[in-house]
Amino acid sequence: MPDLSSLLAQFLALAGVGALVALIINVLKVVGVVKDGDAPTWATGANLVGLVILFLLRVFVPQADIGKLDGLAATIAQIGVLVLGLVTQLLASRATHYAVRGAALVGTSYSLRKSN
């Protein structure tokens, strides 16, 4: 059975898991599940769940490569940040288009004009 201090030290070294937790919370904020100001509470809960999962892995699957799992979490977080950024840009572009529609010069649309 792993001792708590070494388990906590291992968990604190898992940067990929931390990045994944941050990404998940940000996605939940975008979709309205996490309210403004509640992110620290969600992060604490998610990190506690992560610590429990690490403990269970160390007890029941001691041969598990935690470093490899952390790297996978980091990769998922990086891809998620890119996707979230892309979705945010697409939504912002659409909102900007509707905001300036009909304005002189920047709000002009040529797509509906017929070519002669």
Question: Which key features would you list for this structure?
Answer:
116 residues; 0% strand; single chain; mainly alpha
Task: Write up this protein.
The chain is mainly α and 116 residues long. It has helices at residues 4-12, 15-30, 39-60, 66-100. The longest helix has 35 residues, at 66-100. It starts with a helix and ends in a 16-residue tail after the last helix. The mean pLDDT is 86.
Q: What integer is the average pLDDT?
A: 86
> What is the H/E order?
HHHH
How would a textbook summarize the main sheet?
Answer: none
- Radius of gyration from the CA trace? 22 Å
Total of helices: 4
Q: Report low-confidence residues grouped into runs of 5 or more.
A: none
What topology emerges from the helices and strands here?
Layout lengths: L3 H9 L2 H16 L8 H22 L5 H35 L16
Helix pairs in contact: 2-3, 2-4
Write a brief caption for the model.
With 116 residues, the protein is mainly alpha-helical.
